[in-house]
Amino acid sequence: MNKFIKLLFKYFILGNIGGFIYIILELLYRGYSHWTMYCVASISFILIGLINEFIPWNMTLLKQTLIGSFIITCIEFISGFIINIILKWNVWDYSNIPLNFMGQICLPFSILWIFIALIAIIFDDYLRYWLFNEEKPHYKLN
């Protein structure tokens, strides 16, 4: 199989796993979701998984999770601007939550994304190890 096709397949698999898991979390938390959240979560999961592709493994796990939270927050803002403001689909609205920006992102959820990013980083690393024979995960804690 050609290298590009293998890479495309890997990110297709990882993105779908990330999107599916997020939908389940959202259904458990809110009781409903929207198909766009699957796309947003898939993109976020793939980008979080790429942290170790560009930044060495010797970065602390805390720094990785902060970067992951930043990635999710950025993707959430960009997609929220398109989905909720431009398209007016009203999938989410943080206007009633303190420290929000345009109702699309807010500090409390960015903090929650730190914990979600931690889980996503570890899960992505192990998926890559188990499914794609990549390097066994190891983490620097401090």
**Low-confidence sequence ranges:** none
The number of strands is: 2
Based on Cα principal axes, name the global outline: globular
How large is the count of helical segments? 5
Give an overview in words.
The protein is mostly helical and 142 residues long. The protein has helices spanning 3-30, 35-49, 51-54, 61-86, 107-132, and strands at residues 100-101, 105-106. A two-stranded antiparallel ribbon has the order 1-2. A hairpin with a 3-residue loop joins strand 1 (100-101) and strand 2 (105-106). Helix 2 (35-49) packs antiparallel against helix 4. It is globular and about 45 Å long. The protein starts with a helix and ends in a 10-residue tail after the last helix.
Kindly list the characteristics that best describe this protein:
142 residues; mainly alpha; two-stranded antiparallel ribbon; globular
Write a compact overview of the structure shown.
By secondary structure, the protein is mainly alpha-helical.
Secondary structure layout:
Elements: H1 3-30, H2 35-49, H3 51-54, H4 61-86, E1 100-101, E2 105-106, H5 107-132
Antiparallel strand pairs: 1-2
Helix pairs in contact: 1-2, 2-4, 2-5, 4-5
